[in-house]
Write a structure and sequence with these properties.
460 residues, two-stranded antiparallel sheet, disordered C terminus
């Protein structure tokens, strides 16, 4: 396996480094703080669309947190062949929101969780098992584009959070925007102009400052904490299971895209070291995606996948320690077992999270650009692929009604920006002659997909 070593950022803590315990805990909490709102938002959105009551919604949120935590721990430390031994934070992906809501309304949640149970391990397990053969179809041009579109299409969600959250009566109010700007400013200033602990914890400190400001202006609601129970036990089969052809096919395609997201996010994480993941890391990461998603479906959790904004934190802070992410996984699992603790975390206003997530999504897109530019020659062929993939992906992201003339199933599939970007990049890169195409030979004087770049082997 050949790995790129140029373009690495300054690493404060390497992959196997363990920071001192106080710093380790705070760095782990920083990862949790950035991802908890978007991770749980999927559950709230689907529950609202299906019309679930408050207690059922709370249960699904718990399961999302619990299995996000378990999957994160497995990624950091591995269980047999499952896990990448990389700092990959896992959470529920927005890739599945539209399909889960539509299928939940039309077929019931039993069909949603039945499809997850069947397709999660079947699709991603197969891809992970055969990834060494399939890897040539996922060169830096393709995976980099997936990372870029993930970052870009999450920006509107981050901006909605910054404005107070969609559906709030005072959406876009000055105090929401001010809180978001305060968090964004504090994070950037601490990261760019300070050293040591304040730089490493810049995002967490910024969220804390924003939370204190929200308390001062009186917009923090503690009612959910008082109403929540201290402890809850997962219930297998709570929603039942049914296997329907349309939901199964839809989720199978979405798990394919989820695999591409994970490949892109893992590449974004290791790009901090100036390299791409090796075969074993890719395989273990994809196994985790599929297996934990299927197991989570038994208990009522939506599929888990790698979280892009947390990959952004690694590139933003230079902290790549998998032990930090392991702590984050433990915290998430505890939150999933204790609704009261989880409710306390979610008292942080959306605008506060919005300021942090806005920064992270931008960092994700930037890391995708770096993946592309470090290992891809920007010639005419590759520029056309970039243009088509990003144009189509951003097109359906910004104007989803443009697909209203298509059948509902096609709207669900082609309305996903990541699907459209990934598939267009994959098809064009495969069938258009070029040095990153798996069907055509690279020039004799260049390694495949790595023009004019010095490389080192990671093989023993």
């Amino acid at each position: 396996m050949v790995s790129e070593t140029d373009g690495a950022i300054d690493i404060e803590y390497g992959l196997d480094d363990r920071p001192p315990w106080p710093k380790l805990l705070l760095l782990g909490l920083q990862h949790v703080a950035v991802m908890i709102v978007p991770a749980t938002a999927v559950a709230y959105i689907v529950a609202g669309a299906v019309g679930l009551d408050a207690s059922t919604t709370t249960y699904i949120v718990q399961m999302v947190l619990l299995f996000s935590g378990l999957a994160t721990i497995v990624q950091a430390y591995t269980v047999g062949p499952v896990g990448a031994k990389l700092p990959v934070v896992m959470g529920t992906s927005f890739t599945f929101v539209g399909a889960a809501a539509t299928i939940g309304v039309n077929y019931g949640l039993g069909a949603v969780f039945g499809a997850i149970l069947v397709t999660g391990w079947a699709v991603e397990g197969l891809i992970g098992w055969q990834f060494k053969r399939l890897q040539k179809f996922f060169p830096p041009l393709v995976t980099g584009l997936v990372v870029v579109i993930i970052g870009l299409y999450l920006v509107p969600s981050a901006m909605n959070n910054a404005a107070g959250g969609v559906g709030t009566a005072d959406y876009g109010a000055l105090h929401h925007l001010s809180l978001a700007m305060l968090v964004l400013t504090v994070a950037v200033v601490l990261n760019m102009f300070t050293e040591g602990v304040t730089r490493l914890l810049s995002t967490l400190i910024a969220i804390a400052v924003g939370y204190v400001a929200a308390l001062v202006i009186g917009i923090v609601n503690f009612a959910p904490v008082a109403e929540a129970a201290w402890f809850a036990i997962p219930q297998p089969g709570r929603f039942g299971f049914s296997v329907e052809p349309v939901p199964v096919v839809t989720f199978a395609f979405l798990f394919l895209v989820s695999a591409m997201e994970t490949v892109g996010d893992m590449s974004s994480v290791t790009s901090a070291e100036g390299r791409t993941p090796d075969d074993e890391e890719f395989r273990g990461g994809l196994f985790t995606d599929g297996l934990v998603s299927s197991i989570g479906g038994i208990f009522g959790a939506f599929p888990v996948t790698s979280f892009s904004q947390n990959a952004g934190i690694i590139n933003f802070t230079g902290v790549m320690s998998r032990h930090v992410v392991g702590v984050a996984g433990v915290v998430l699992a505890v939150l999933g077992l204790s609704p009261k603790v989880g409710a306390a975390v979610t008292t942080i206003p959306s605008a506060v999270f919005g300021g942090a997530i806005l920064l992270m999504t931008g960092m994700v897109a930037a890391s995708g650009v770096r993946l592309i530019t470090l290992r891809t020659e920007l010639n005419r062929r590759n520029m056309v692929i970039l243009a088509v993939a990003l144009g189509l992906g951003l097109g359906v992201a910004t104007q989803p009604k443009a697909l209203s003339g298509l059948p509902v199933a096609a709207q669900t599939f082609f309305g996903q920006p990541v699907i459209v970007t990934a598939l267009s990049a994959l098809l064009l890169n495969t069938f258009v002659p070029g040095d990153q195409s798996p069907l055509f030979d690279a020039p004799a004087d260049e390694p495949l997909g790595e023009p004019d770049v010095e490389t080192v082997s990671t093989d023993d």
